[in-house]
Amino acid sequence: MSEHMTAKEKLTAHENTLKIENALRKMKNRDTSVQHDPSIYIDDNGKEFKTTERIIKSVTAPTDVIPTDEELFGNNGDLPNYKFLREHFKREGKLTQIQVLKIIKMATKIFESESNLLHIPSPVNVCGDVHGQFYDLCKLFEICGDPDKTSFLFLGDYVDRGSYSLEVLLLLYSMKINHPKTFTLLRGNHETKQMTQHFTFKSECLVKYSIDVYHESLKSFCALPIAAIMNKQFFCVHGGISKDIKYISDVDKINRFQVDFPSHGAFCDLMWSDPSNEFDNEPYGINNKVKDFSENYERGCSYMYSYNAVCQFLERNNLLSVIRAHQAQDKGYRMYKKTPTQQFPSVISLFSAPNYCGTYGNKAAVLKYDVTTMNIRQFSSQSEPYHLPNFMNVFTWSIPFVAERVCEILFSVLNICTDEELEMDTPLSKELARSLLEVQNENDRKRLYALMKSVSSSSTTSSATSSTSALTKSESNNSLSNSSRRSSSSALSLNKDKKSIQGSFDDENITKDNEGEVEDNKDVSKTLDNTALRKKILAIGRLSRMFHLLRQESEKVEQLRAYSGGLTLPKGVLINGSEEIDKQLSHFERVRLADLSNEAVPPTAEEQSQEEDDKYRRLWDRVVHEV
Questions:
Q1: CA nearest 224: which of 205, 208, 238, 243?
Q2: CB of 121 within 8 A of CB of 345?
Q3: Average pLDDT score over residue span 431-442
Q4: Annotated catalytic sites, by residue?
Q5: Strand pairing of 500-503 and 293-295?
Q6: DSSP letter string, 258-284
Q7: Three-state DSSP class for 304?
Q8: CA distance readout (Å), 394 to 165, 210, 230, 387
Q9: Which long-range contacts (CB under 8 A, 24 or more apart) does 249-253 make?
Q10: CA torsion through residues 165, 166, 169, 171, sign
Q11: Distances from the Cα of 22 to the Cαs of 16, 31, 335, 494, in angstroms?
């Protein structure tokens, strides 16, 4: 064949041969040794896990030991031992209700003696939202040090969302009792009756202790200070500035001893306000067209403050920056646009709850400040014991699974007949035939047979299309003979509380003796129409599909509810069905956007009731449509 090739074709073939030989030579000399063990998995943080072994080989059982007053408060009974308490809570331990109330009351007494606006010297560690994430709080103290050796300033939001709000609160209060001057706790927007009822703190108190603990906690929230000046340079508050507060001295004019915040005004703004979404792009100056305070549509109350409003507030009060919390941050913190005069971030946002609500995937951050340096320390979330949503017990949680499996079993048991077998009539069992034979009267026998059919097919009455006639309790009692009552007492007992029993009378399915007499020792060829069995199979199948659908959607809804961190879902999620729910189950920014409705002021009780009714009505309509 090469004899018929042109010179150009021969040259091309020779070049291809050389390329193939070079490729084979390189493959032969390639290092085929394994560079990485495929049985080793490395996560995003560089931690290695062996896929051939369990990640968690054993789990320590929760302690059931209740500490004595001597262990918790010492021999003098004056100060709680917060180091002992921290280790006790790590083991999922509990206290007595008397001990819990004592700690809360001791902390409340200290809070009541403090002013609205505190003055904090440096050095100090400034911390943002904690939200009931106890094990992450323990990590925070590992990073920053013990309160014995360093000062702390917390900016509020200690409760709700997480499963350990009480543990967080009791640990922080115990530290405050031991170090009243160097351990400072400010109030956040979640430290109110309205928020704790709407989210998880109240239900947590009821599950773990009682309503008395919840009420005493509300009293302590009312006494918490609301702002602080750190090192005479930084205005520290949970939310932000207010248009009603020109000077920091105005903070002391607020009546903070309120269980809920007003819907507007200075107190509301300090807890609820946020920087505007275009804060970093806004101009500075009196003549700019940007509003200093605009409606906070994300929160449903208070304002969004502009860059210009913050700069004017800082200049007016001779301050360097505003340090606040209140908003989840992907990195755990955010430095906003610098001031024109000091060239220092005008606003610093801190968030100290890593992987917020178990879904955000965010880092947490703490600001460590002394006179000369300012450092941001980040940390990731820590493993913690799992809790079912809303502290649900495992039996309630498992009901949908059990119901679905039972329906599957029933469907499998009933679905053993072929279509041909269902078209045929099935002979009655000897026991059933004998019970019918005991009924001497032909009309009574008809009624008893119809009664048995109605009982057996009662689950499919909605799908039956044949005409039915009612057999009332009194009619059945009057028409059945004594012997028929004895033989059918179990069937009648199932229906004694019903107003009527519907049964289909099909004379063709009742084999009658021509002379009206039947002998017990003769074979009886009575048959049972398999239509009822066919309908029952279809009904159980529909019921199984309904349970399967409800369980799947319930799991998605509970997952999204957990993502949202509250008892309600983001508005509009259920309107567009399961596709919208699937779309919402995503990461930080999308989860944050889905969570915005839970970051707002909760609806009233009437609005919540109406929303729940609408939600279940839409879900039921969808289930009916699917089935």
A1: 238
A2: no
A3: 55
A4: 190
A5: unpaired
A6: -SS--SSSHHHHHHH-EE-TTGGG---
A7: strand
A8: 21, 21, 47, 10
A9: 249/117, 251/116, 251/117, 251/226, 251/227, 252/115, 252/116, 252/117
A10: negative
A11: 10, 16, 56, 87
SS3 349: strand
Paired with 40 in beta bridges are: 50
User: Is residue 358 within 8 Å of 162, Cβ to Cβ?
Assistant: no
The C-alpha atoms of residue 391 and residue 69 are separated, in whole angstroms, by 28
- List helix spans (H) across 280-393: 307-317
Instruction: Tell me the pLDDT tens digit for each residue of 578-624.
Output: 555 555 554 555 666 666 666 777 777 777 777 777 776 776 776 66
Between the alpha carbon of residue 192 and those of residues 215, 258, 297, the distances in Å are: 11, 8, 21
CA distance 274 to 482: 81
The angle subtended at Cα 66 by Cα 60 and Cα 67, nearest 5°, is 110
Cβ-count burial 355-382 (b if 16+ within 10 Å, e if not): bbbbbbebbbbbbbbeeeebebeebebb
Give the DSSP H or E segment for 116.
none
Check whether 44 has a pLDDT greater than 80.
no
Residues 523-547, buried b or exposed e (16+ Cβ, 10 A)? ebebebebbbbbbbbebbbbbbbbb
- Listed by start position, the domains of the chain span 69-387, 425-529, 537-626
Per DSSP, what are the bridge partners of residue 376? 367
Using only C-alpha atoms, the chain has a radius of gyration, in whole angstroms, of 36
- For 490, the token pair is 């179990």
Separation of alpha carbons 564 and 556, rounded Å:
12
CATH class, domain 69-387, is: alpha beta
Tell me the residue type at 547. Answer: F
Q: What is the 3-state secondary structure (H, E, C) of 452-518?
A: HHHHHCHHHCCCCCCCCEEEEHHHHHHHCCHHHHHHCHHHHHCCCCCCEEEECCCHHHCCCCCCCCC
What is the Cα–Cα distance from 287 to 300, expressed in whole angstroms? 28
Instruction: Identify the residue whose tokens are 């879904």.
Output: 359
Q: Do the Cβ atoms of 304 and 277 come closer than 8 Å?
A: yes
CA distances from 584 to 79, 390, 556 (A): 47, 20, 10
Residue 301's nearest CA partner among 349, 336, 262 is: 262
pTM: 0.67
Contacts of 50 (CB under 8 A, 6+ apart): 39, 40, 41
Residue 294 backbone dihedrals phi, psi, to 5 degrees? -120, 165
Helices and strands: H and E segment counts in the chain: 23, 20
| Structural contact between residues 146 and 182, judged by C-beta atoms closer than 8 angstroms | no
Reduce the DSSP state of residue 532 to 3 states and report it. helix
Name the nearest CA neighbour of 300 among 443, 195, 371: 195
User: H/E element holding 365?
Assistant: strand 364-369
Cα gap 58→54, rounded to integer Å: 9
Query: How far is Cα of residue 308 from the mean position of the Cα atoms in its chain?
Result: 38
What count of other Cβ atoms lies within 10 Å of the Cβ of residue 450? 22
- Paired with 254 in beta bridges are none
The structure tokens listed for 608 are 């919540």
52-67 mean pLDDT:
88
Q: What is the pLDDT of residue 5?
A: 75
**DSSP track, 156-194:** S--SSSSS-HHHHHHHHHHHHHH-TTTEEE---TTSSHH
Q: If pLDDT is split at 50, 70 and 90, which confidence band does 48 have? A: confident
